[in-house]
Amino acid sequence: MTPTALRHAGIVGAGSIGVAFAIVFARAGWRVRLFDPDMQRRAAAPAEIALRLDDLARFALIDESPAQIAARVQIVDTLEAAVIDADLVQECAPEQVELKRELFAQLDKYSPPQAILASASSFLAASEFVDQSLPGHARCIVAHPGNPPYLVPVVEIVPAPFTSAAATTRAIALYGEAGLMPVRVKKEVTGFIFNRLQGAVLREAYCLVRDGVASVDDIDTVMREGLAPRWSVIGPFETVDLNTRGGIASHARKMGPSYERMGAERGQHDPWTPELVAQVEAARRAALPLERWDARVSWRDRQLMQLARHRKSATHTDD
């Protein structure tokens, strides 16, 4: 996706996420400056970018040659050089509060006043590492990507209570221009949406292994061959909405008590109250009136058929 104006991204941190973000922005036509304090990481980044771009080209997932896209990425030797003219600064440093606090003080000092300062933090909220005495604190935000973002396009936009509405809106627009799918997280919670959902699955998976219910391989099989195909087409709410005639309200009446008992086994008491079910049902019915339920079920099945066909053909293709 080509932005309407030439954009500049400054990326701080040339690990796997920083390299991946460089590909995202360069693929969208942005000019990218990438910095890492580790000289070895700076030296390694160009080859890593080239390798990933070659793979994307092999699967026809880029519209230009790898060389054209890679040419938009410049490795720089200082943080100041990375951010000096950036529209968006993407911090990709380790998950350490003090490190991020120091970095954001520098980012605020050296970047243009209109630049969005975003952290790729997976768990830490911006209010944990951005000092409100920082002159530009209102433009600081978390932008947590899926990994790798050039293949998993969702990016969670998590403003702090002190982040301005204008900065949040601008961040959402910029990431959208870069070809990602921004999701606004309404409040700061540890792990945001992505890792809280992933964490819920992982906690139960570990418990099932611990309790001798299933092997690691069998749990992966249930996810890979059972839940994952549906979730790759539709999310968990739409999945259960389409699984039960009458939609999600019917599903909650029939299955809710069993899910509540399973939660109680783990010491978690989070029943689906009538008010909560009504809220979710209202959202689903706004998206899909019940008179269109049968048609949507057929659509889901056709999507799964396409996926099954792809997976079947992929088994006959070498890596």
Please, could you describe this protein's structure?
One of its GO terms (molecular function) is L-gulonate 3-dehydrogenase activity. It is found in: Cytoplasm. It is an enzyme of class 1 (oxidoreductase). Its EC number is 1.1.1.45. This is L-gulonate 3-dehydrogenase. The chain has 319 residues and is an alpha/beta fold. The chain has two domains: 8-184, Rossmann fold (3-Layer(aba) Sandwich); 194-314, N-(1-d-carboxylethyl)-l-norvaline Dehydrogenase, domain 2 (Orthogonal Bundle). The chain contains 13 helices and eight strands. It has helices at residues 16-27, 39-58, 66-70, 79-83, 97-110, 126-129, 165-177, 194-210, 216-231, 236-243, 247-265, 274-287, 293-314; strands at 8-12, 31-35, 73-75, 88-91, 116-119, 140-145, 154-159, 181-184. Strands 3-2-1-4-5-6-7-8 form an eight-stranded mixed beta sheet, sandwiched between helices. Strand 4, helix 5 (97-110) and strand 5 form a beta-alpha-beta unit. Helix 11 crosses helix 12. The longest helix is centred in the C-terminal third of the chain and has 22 residues, at 293-314.
